[in-house]
Amino acid sequence: MLVTAPSATASRPKVSIRGAAKQFGKMVALQGVDLELQENSFTCLLGPSGCGKSTLLNMIAGFAEPSAGQVLVDGLPVKGPSADRGVVFQEYALFPWRTALDNVAFGPMLKGRGKAEQQEIARRYLALVGLAGHEAKYPGNLSGGMKQRVAIARALANDPSVLLMDEPFGALDAQTRETLQEELLRIWEQDRKTVVFVTHSISEAIFLADRIVVMATRPGAVKEVFDVEIPRPRERSDPEFVRLEREIKLLVRAEVQKLGVI
Amino acid sequence: MSATTLTPDMAAAERPPSPWPRRLADAGMRCLAILIFIAIWSVVSLGNQYLWKFFNPLLLPTPIDVVRAGIEAVQTGELQANIVASMRRVIQGFGIAAIAGIVVGLAVGTWRPLEKLVEPMIELLRPIPPLAFLPMMVLWFGIGEMSKIAFIAYAAFFPVFTTTVEGIKFVDPVLVRAASSLGASRMDLFRHVILPAATPSIITGLRLGFGLSFFVIVAAEFIAADSGLGYMINDARTFFLVSQMLLGAVVIGLIGFVVNILLRGVEGWLLRWRVATRG
Ligand SMILES: Nc1ncnc2c1ncn2[C@@H]1O[C@H](COP(=O)(O)OP(=O)(O)O)[C@@H](O)[C@H]1O
Ligand SMILES: [Mg+2]
What ligand 1 atom has the least distance to the C-alpha of A51? Predict the structure, then answer.
């Protein structure tokens, strides 16, 4: 049984965000964000829709540049996307013309690995996400949950040190969602990475994260940071879980109300 | 922590292909439709010849007459020679159009400044029916093979070019992001994301372009040719050989039909992943 609190074991900041802001034209999407994410920690970005969660994640991924401030990974400013920062999208973003196996082999292929090695790696990661036997299927033949498993395997097969996930389970039904949350933790505990996981589900954040970054709206900013000390595996009925859930809910509700009628 | 039980949800099981009896029924319906068409044609032709005598029977021969004309034309070798002449022009002209359309389309689709330059020119030329340029092509390239090939190439260029550009424009940006976060360079993106994503659209353009090549070659051969199926029809007209004119039309129809089946086969194979996506 693993009972270590990862925030206690790791200490080096993997991702540092210093005074980062993002503007789209005149609209300020994100303002004055300061965050340090410890190596191999699991952070959830939580907040209502439109508060800039994806914007922040995209800046770490290198899809967007901050309008002000800095985003550093391993102490170096982020300059565009890189194979060392894997991304999992809500829309799965699988290549429909590639089989599950070839989707997962994409990263190793780009790295110039031999065909046999690519396949071996892809097979291993598909098995890790519980999709052994589905190698030859095209994404069009997979359910939403299976597609997201392939997408996770594809990101992991590159062995990135940072894993960025933007509402990865947002389009899945409740049952599939909880199963995938458990499996994500199982995988992460076997093979630690620095994970940044965007969600607007409070219970998902408490179930998964070492740290929860609750975000403010109008303009987007960090509102409050919670360290979750409940040992894993966490029970949703645990009194501490319920208490934290209620506390965060009040906080998020205040942010939603700032948006007016929704 | 012990491994959780794995329950990949199997909601999207593969769909079985349509069962054999239904496919047979489909094929049967098609044959029936063709037979009914031939029957109506025969009735109108024979009825006119022997019963109501509305128009000169020479104007509408029976299907049998057309078949007879076909056998005769095959025996003299004329039909084969004309088919080969037309097909040769179509293949050369379409080949040029396909290469030029894809290459220019890819360049325009991936490089914005070029798009701003080329797009207005194309938009200016496209609404003009290619036939309007045929007499000019004959002036420029002479009455030989060159003018026909150039004409086909010109006409078929547009659908290939347009669908290639569209295909690239509508590549899902999230796929590009996914690939670049996996370490793809610009060249990788082009080769492994943009090109495959645009392929269905490009293939549609190729099919349209091939159809159009066929469409315009007949017209070109009416005007300036001494061989080919269009020439055969026009030549038969001057001698009032209506069966032979109809024969030309039927042969063109049959070739188009067969080529379309072949192209769809190639398409189905290249885009086999799509069957799944549609299901
Ligand atoms: N490319 C863009 N151009 C203009 N506005 C954008 C762009 N991306 C995001 N925004 C705006 O920035 C705000 C934050 O967006 P986003 O980060 O996607 O929020 P979240 O992921 O929390 O729902 C929203 O108001 C959104 O409309
Ligand atoms: Mg978002």
Answer: 22
